[in-house]
Amino acid sequence: MAPSQPSLSDSDSLKRPALVLASASPRRLALLGQIGIVPDDVVSTDVDEEPRPGELPRALAQRLAREKADHAASQRQDAALIIGADTVVAVGRRILPKAEDEKTARACLRLLSGRNHKVLTAVALRPTVGWVDGVANERLVETSVTFHRLTDSQIDALIANGDWQGKAGGYAIQGAAAAHIRQIGGSYSAVVGLPLFETAQLLRGQPRRQGGWIA
């Protein structure tokens, strides 16, 4: 008797589920590429990022990462794993906004001048209903960043550069602001937008399939 052929379900169970990045951020996509990970799909999510009354920075980052991943997962029925992430910049309990205009960016830089602040980046993994073996998991990474004391002309130059647009806290560590950051304690990639070591660890923790995302 000839050996039986594997059924379609057996074959499907060996395939690597699609990897989806639930973020339109080009920085997060580039960071994944840095460690050899290319998502099968990239989607933006319509999530209200305003802090809730009394919500602390850590809780906000974790909630938004979960909501982004959950929203993207709910839109798919195939076997897929969703990566959601969010970055929050805070001085103590004060959450700094994403700078959408020069006034906001300037206010953030003045607040950060000469002091230490925290960058909290959460990453959440969510399997879709089509991948029953997938494991939901998440991490929160806290990084300490210290600016030297900025002069008015230095703040003017950072504003003129323009890379603050849409950035939490009004600066991009991979941009012109790097010339004014005296010290960083923790994950540089998390400040950019995605903690690479922790993300890789989360992916390694998923059930193994052919052509897994990372060694």
UniProtKB/TrEMBL annotation:
UniProt key word Cytoplasm: yes
First-listed, main subcellular location of the protein, grouped into a coarse class: cytoplasm
Q: Which SUPFAM superfamilies match?
A: ITPase-like
Q: What CDD domains does UniProt report for this protein, alphabetically?
A: Maf
**InterPro entries linked:** ITPase-like_fam (IPR029001), Maf-like (IPR003697)
UniProt cross-references to Gene3D superfamilies, sorted A to Z: 3.90.950.10
What is catalysed by this protein? dTTP + H2O = dTMP + diphosphate + H(+); UTP + H2O = UMP + diphosphate + H(+)
* Keywords per UniProt: Cytoplasm, Hydrolase, Nucleotide metabolism
Q: What is its EC number?
A: 3.6.1.9
Q: What is this protein called?
A: dTTP/UTP pyrophosphatase
Lineage from the top down? Bacteria, Pseudomonadati, Pseudomonadota, Alphaproteobacteria, Acetobacterales
